[in-house]
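thought: fold this chain, then report.
action: predict
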Amino acid sequence: AIVEDVRPCRTRWRSLDRYKADSTQGQLHGGVPCARLSLSPITGRNRQIRLHMAAIGHPLLGDTMHGDVFAASAAPRLCLHAAALEFPHPFTNERMLVTCPAPF
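observation:
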């Protein structure tokens, strides 16, 4: 839901891949057009990515909170994954980068 009178927030996105879901994997409804996106919140609000995608009519697969019935049931889990996290080490201030490919 988009709420008035709140601080503005922005999400940067780019398309990584487009495909039709494969029902043989048992994870998604077969033949449904899907896209894998890179989403980066510029601000950092709670559920920002989920809200932005739902607001433009493209809810995340598996999103039972903000997705429609189809999106909520399209995957066994929320298809949102932090593929990379970067932060300063709390003691040394050295730049830390942790990566993990999406399991879906």
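thought: worth noting. The helical segments are 48-55, 69-73.
final: tokens above.
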